[in-house]
Write a structure and sequence with these properties.
The complex is a heterodimer. Chain A is α+β, with helices and mostly antiparallel strands. Chain A has two helices and five strands, in the order αββαβββ. A five-stranded antiparallel β-sheet of chain A has the order 2-1-5-4-3, with helices on both faces. In chain A, 25% of the residues are buried. The N and C termini of chain B lie close together (7 Å). Chains A and B meet through helix 2 of A and helix 4 of B.
Amino acid sequence: FTFGANSPNYCIVNSSIMEGQLESQVTEISQTPGIVGVICTDKQGLSLAAQGTLKSSAAGIVAGLASQANSLKMGTGDDDKPTVVVEFDTGNIMIKSQERSTLAVHKV
Amino acid sequence: INSTHFSIDLMEEGLQSMLKRLLPTVDGLQCILVCDRDGVIIVEVHTDDLPPAIVKPIFMGTFAIASEQASKLGVGKNSSVISYYSGHQVIQCNYLPLVLTFVAKVDANTGMLFALEEDLRDSVNQLRDLIGVS
């Protein structure tokens, strides 16, 4: 599907390719007002999808931060993983991990 | 020539202490080493729990061959090879004639190891240039 061809956020996502569904979800998130970067990583810190200000090179650090925060084990169970918020003067990066992946969003 | 050799000794000591300082920064990282294309180790740091059988010239020396072959796939020069084994992962980075190698547990953060490689890039390039001079 395409977003308005004349809009500055124009992009084409081919949902028939293997990672199409993930790419379309990441694109949808990145088009939310205020969101300037999105990255999805696996448990090994390798980038699955990255858009905007969050580049693939940040994947390891994003996954590492989530893993280190989770090691505090302050949650009520294995499924209760913390949300890490990294604050900058210009915005925040929010990192949330699930069982096999980690998602980070850069919001200004 | 004498001053170059002196610089190499200084460089190696500086690099070794840098590697020793960086080794504990990634969970599961067990070894960082720099070797030549034949697997001869130039600088190495490792934790006590590293199985000695992993760091062998015959194992390290295969990267140069594999990297040169991988560079012929038509997508550009090969920069690194990640190998996952049942208990360990090995990341080898192309600085030919030097090879920068990380050995870590299989569940270690591979992305963080690549971030570490960026921190070491300038130092390994300097070592490569020094060795090239001598």
